[in-house]
Amino acid sequence: MLYSRWRFSRPIALFLCCGGLTFASACKPKEAPSDKHAEAPAQTTRKESESDLNVITLTEDAIRRLGLETQEVKEREMYRSRPYGADLVLPTDAAVIVSAPLAGTLHSPSDQPRLEVGRQVDRKQSILSIYPLLSPERSVLTPAERIRFAEAKNALAQSRIDAEGAVQQATVQVDAAKIALERAQRLLADMVGTLRAVDEAKAQLDLAEQGLAAAKLRQKQVEGVILDEEAGTLSAIAIPTPISGILRTVQVQPGEMVAAGAPLFEVMNDELLWVKAPVYVGDLDEIDSQKEARVSMLDGRPAADDVLVKPIASPPTAVPTAAAVDLYYLLPNQDGRFQPGQKLALHVPLKGQTMQTAVPWQAVIHDIYGGQWVYEQTAPQKFVRRRVQVAWVDGDWAAVRQGPAPGAKVVTAGAAEIAGVEFGFAK
C-alpha cells in the first residue's frame, strides 16, 4: 500500500521541482552586456612603414672610423647576360693514344725503369723504343734464302766498290777541269788564248762538278743499305709522342712484350680547353652566340680573375632528354689554372641592350634568407636599408628591377659594418 503511493507521488514531485527552477530563472533580472568582446586583440598607437624601422643614425666620428663610401644609383646601359652551368672538356684533338707499330719488346731510351703518369713531354720526344720480334718460322733462314742473302751481299759490296770508283773518277775529272780552266785564263791574259777556250774550260768544270755530286749521292745511298747477317735481329724503332703535353695514362712499362696495335700510352694537352654549356632550346633565340662570354666560379660573383671566352665552331651535340643543346667556347689555359672536368659558371650574353637602373654590385648585401639589400644615405648621418631585386650583373654594376631611384646615394664601402650596427653583432 505504501509502495504504490510512493510510486505515484514521485513523478509529481519531479515535475513541481522543474517548474520552480524555470520560474526562478525567468524572474531573474538581465545583466548588462560585457565590453570585453569589443576590444581588439592588439593595439598600436600609429602604423610605421618598413623604411621607418630601418633608419640608422651614425655620428660623424663613426662614419669616419667605418670608412663609409657612397655612390649614386645610375640609369645606364647594361649588357644582359644569363648564367649557365658549364663543364671544361678537352678538345677532340687534345688527347692522343699511341699504339705499338709492330710486335716487339719495349725499352726506355732514357734508361728510366718505368713511365710515370703526369710527366711533361714534348712533341716528337721519344718516350719508348721497341725491338721488333720475328715470327718463329722466320727465325732460321732456308738454304735458298741463304743463297739469295749471299748474292745480295756480293751485289751490295760490288755496288759500294763501283760507287767509290765513280767518286774518285769524278774527283779526278774536276781537278783536270780546274787545271784546264786556269791554263785557258792565263793564255787569255797573255794575249795568246781565246775567250772561247775559257768558256769551254768553264763548261767542262761545271760538267765535272755535277758528275762528282751525282757520284757522291749514289755512294751515300749505297752506304745506307744495311743487311743484317744474323737472322732475327733488327735495330730498335723509336716511338715518339705526336703532341706536347702530359702523360695521361700508361698501359705498359719498359721490358714488356706487346703485340702490334697494342695501346702504349696517352698524351693530353690542356693548354686549350672547351667550355661546354647545355642550354635549353627555348633560350637560343635570346642568346647572342657571336659575342664573348664570361667564365667565373660557381658562386657567379664577378671577380678580377674572370676570363672572357670566345665562341668556336664545334660539332653539334645535344641532350635530347633535357631539350638542351650544347654551346662551346674556347678557354686559354697556358698557366694550368683550370682542369678538364671542372665545373664553372658561364655567363652568356643576351641579345639587345637596355637602359636599366643600376646600383654598384659592391653595395648589395644578402641576408640569411637570400634577400638583397642596399643602404641608402638619406641624410649626412642617416642611412636607410632598402630592399632591391637584382636582375643581372654586368661587371661592377647590378641591374635592379626594384630599389632606390636614380640619383640616390648607396653605401659601397662599409655596408656590412652598418648591418652589424643595425642587427647588433658589431663591436
TrEMBL record:
The keyword Metal-binding does not apply. Residues 167-218 form a coiled coil. Residues 29-53 are annotated as: Disordered. GO terms for cellular component: cell envelope. The keyword Transcription regulation does not apply. Keywords: Coiled coil, Signal, Transport. One of its GO terms (biological process) is plasma membrane copper ion transport. Residues 1-26 form the signal peptide. Residues 29-50 have a biased composition (Basic and acidic residues). InterPro entries: MFP_Cation_Efflux (IPR051909). It comes from the Bacteria. This is Efflux transporter periplasmic adaptor subunit. It comes from Blastopirellula marina. The lineage of its organism: Bacteria, Pseudomonadati, Planctomycetota, Planctomycetia, Pirellulales.
